[in-house]
Specification:
The protein has one domain. Helices cover 51% and strands 16% of the residues. The protein has 9 helices and 6 strands, in the order αααααββββββαααα. It has helices spanning 3-17, 23-37, 47-60, 71-78, 85-94, 165-177, 184-199, 205-208, 211-237, and strands spanning 98-108, 111-116, 122-126, 139-147, 150-153, 158-160. Strands 1, 2, 3, 4, 5 and 6 form a 6-stranded antiparallel beta sheet that branches. Helix 1 (3-17) packs across helix 5 and helix 2 (23-37) crosses helix 3. It starts with a helix and ends with a helix.
Length: 238
């Protein structure tokens, strides 16, 4: 099974999940994702990566049905009698993805060794693409897609500064200790901090990656959420 097949199946999944009948869900998921990770603009150098992150959030993390079923799980259920068996198998594998913040350990040939900083599991990922600039000890958010007996990186990455690894690890360990099954919300918050770092390069990175900044963002989001019903109410009166 080639790496290219993995991404061909991922493209098919995206095409199915973003069809006309899903447009309202796509819009709602997009609003929620960028509220959690920070708004981006088309001229941002990280725009494409963040859009990839949104698409994968919509596919795998967005609660598309009661019980928190993902969009992918819903598509599999609806397509059991209509989709080709190979697609159903590939999609089911993707839905068991591992989404976390990893530390890059080494690359030997097509095998990349990474450490999951959330649960300390080590993974070997098949990756033929050149990982430009990636060095031992680098810390990044990624999603590992199972396909056949191999793991592959998806198309979405968020790279974090090495200088804040200790802070990130501490937050991940605290989340795990609290019993959270998947640290999606924390990954989103770290992505928000990375965006702030990109916006304010002159500010010390340790000031941005801090509990104070996280509390500030939480307060801003609560204020925004509180103002939204009021604004909608005003529209209704007009």
């Amino acid at each position: 099974m080639s790496d290219s097949q993995t991404y061909q199946y991922l493209d098919k999944l995206i095409a199915l999940a973003t069809g006309e009948q899903f447009l309202d869900a796509v819009r709602e998921a997009k609003t929620r994702y960028f509220r959690a990770t920070g708004e981006v603009f088309e001229d941002d150098p990280f725009f494409e990566q963040r859009m990839n992150g949104f698409v994968e959030y919509y596919l795998f993390d967005w609660p598309a049905a009661p019980g928190g079923k993902s969009t992918t799980a819903v598509l599999i259920e609806r397509g059991r009698d209509t989709l080709p068996p190979d697609q159903l198998v590939a999609f089911a594998g993707f839905d068991r993805n591992v989404h976390s913040i990893f530390e890059f350990k080494k690359k030997k040939g097509e095998l990349v060794t990474v450490l999951n900083l959330y649960d300390d599991e080590t993974y070997e990922v098949h990756e033929r693409r050149a990982l430009a600039g990636l060095e031992k000890g680098d810390v990044f958010e990624a999603r590992l897609l199972p396909y056949g007996d191999k793991l592959h990186f998806s198309n979405a990455f968020v790279f974090h500064p090495k200088a804040v690894k200790k802070f990130i690890v501490g937050e991940l360990k605290a989340a795990r200790k609290s019993g959270i099954g998947r640290p999606t919300a924390l990954l989103h918050r770290m992505a928000y901090l990375r965006m702030r770092f990109d916006r304010f390069r002159r500010v010390d990175v340790t000031k941005i990656y801090s509990k104070e900044t996280m509390d500030q963002i939480d307060a801003e989001l609560r204020k925004e959420a509180a103002a939204q019903p009021e604004a909608e109410g005003q529209k209704g009166k007009q």
